[in-house]
Amino acid sequence: MRTKINRLLLILLATAIGVMFIVPLIWMVTISLKSDIEAFLPDLSFSRRNRP
Amino acid sequence: MRGSWRSKLTSSLFVLPYFVCFALFLLYPLASGIVLSFQDYDMLGSREFIGLENYKNIFTPGTLIHDLFVRGLSGTFKFVIYSVPFLVIVGLALALLVNALSTRVQGFYRTIFFMPYAISATVMATIWMRVFDTDTGFLNILLDKMGKAGPHIGWLNDTPWVWIALVFCTIWWTVGFNMIIFINGLNEVPEELYEAARLDGANAWHRLIHITLPSIRSISTVVLIMTIIASFNVFAQPFLMTRGGPGYETTVLLMNIFAVAYGQHQGGAASAMAIVLGLIMMVVSTVIYRLLSGRRG
Prior knowledge:
The complex is a heterodimer. Helix content of chain A is 75%, strand content 0%. Chain A contains one helix and no strands. At the A-B interface, α1 of A face α3, α4 and α5 of B. Chain B: It is found in: Cell membrane.
């Protein structure tokens, strides 16, 4: 039981650190593709002010 | 006898492609840099042999070259001192964390932690400038929303925050490489040692201190020296993110070498500065290697 909890805690820790590593990259890709995505899918606009 | 001669020729031919590339891309630029450091070169065409004049200027207080060299070296040393411990310790910590996970998920987390290393310096700088911007940066907006009162923190234009920002984004960008080397080192540690330690009642901390760290000492030395050399060569982060500011706080030596070569049009002086930096790096690396190997013996 204790080993399972330890493993779960390790996975949680690795995930939390992994989020710090991956989120800036995903954020950058999203920003760079933002206008393209909005052009194709206007209803899913990222910016609220662009909505009618 | 004839067979031996043929064998030597064959092995030499195998080495030849590497040697040609080594000579063309490493030896020739190095030699021409050394020759250039003894010349007055305006980066346009005229070259004149001036002996040790460029080196004399570097070590003569009051000259422009001396001021730029000392100021840049001070920034570089600060960066090395602030970043190297974190890059080594965080790299080791991530390697230990990934190694402690089950083998099914190790590859996934290894990839995630290594991914930033694959992006270019300009992309890294663009990402973190958006995060650390004083007025519109994600971090200051987040701090505002969390209820932080007072003016925004100048992550890229105030000390000591500027160093924290530069070191943080360097860790994010390059620590994955150190982690991969440490993981290779950890995989070489015999499992029997851990089993014996467990039987003797050693806990995780004791196993780390008495088995893991001594077993990866040679890998740690390599990582430390490579990290020191990489940190001495810092250029992109301050050049792109702070332009050497606030004031000259984050102006590193490579930025000043670049400025002397392409701003002042003094190619010879810039070469001499680069060679002195190379010698400093060699001395620091040798001293650290000797200290760590001496302790091992």
